Amino acid sequence: MKNIIQFLNSQIKTEPVVGIILGSGLQKIASSLDDVLIIKYSDIPSFMDTSVEGHAGEFIVGKVNNMDVICANGRFHYYEGLSYDKVHIIIDIFREMGCENIITTNSSGCLNPSWKPGDLMVIDSHIDMTFRNGIDEINKKYGNQYYDTNLYNLAIESMEEMDLDIRTGTYGWTLGPTYETEAEIKWMQELDIQAVGMSTVPEIERAHELEINLLGIACLTNYAVGISKNPLTHMEVIEQAEKSGNQFSKLILNILNKMSNLNN
Questions:
Q1: pLDDT (tens digit, 9 = 90+) per residue, 159-210?
Q2: Residues 6 or more apart from 34 whose CB is under 8 A from it?
Q3: Which residue from 93, 114, 54, 66 is spatially nearest to 242, judged by alpha carbons?
């Protein structure tokens, strides 16, 4: 970690206030930043590179309304064979870089048939559905200690201004890399899970441990298995995320501008 931070500090001359993790296909936000600097993961000593399509593997540094931000365009997944502490390493890097706030995003499957692909959901709770620690560990975690109330309110206010359908709910983390079965989806619906994916929860838990303000947003790219009868592919997820990219980017920028105004 020390070598990674030393290298990034040698390249980045400002201290970012906000760190953003971009999910599959959600990289359009980068084109809206000012004074952009791109640092590829592969150029950073002692650092890993991404292996999943839709995750470019680069840090994008820039400004929004003169506020310094850093985006991780590419995250790591437990199913890639990494140890748990490596999966949330982006959060540790953001913290060492000085980020006071983190926005983590993802592309997720939608479990609510009354919603539609392309909707954006503010995450207000999560459940670890990986069974890494046994079935007794399955419980919903929520509250300000995980999801900062101020950031949550800024997100809802931004969605209202954009006339978006207000979607909030629980994110379920599954191990992957295969998609869930129809029986698993039915069980998650019984647990009142609205979105499902293979990432994000390790980052949420780590931000909680480090007491960093966090906002989570899921781009609902597809209906989960059993809700739609069409077979699901990763390419479909990426394509829908890219279609939703402009709206998603606008929402994030709206939130960042509100954060900047509060800091000034």
A1: 999 999 999 999 999 998 888 889 999 999 999 999 999 999 999 999 999 9
A2: 62, 63, 64
A3: 54
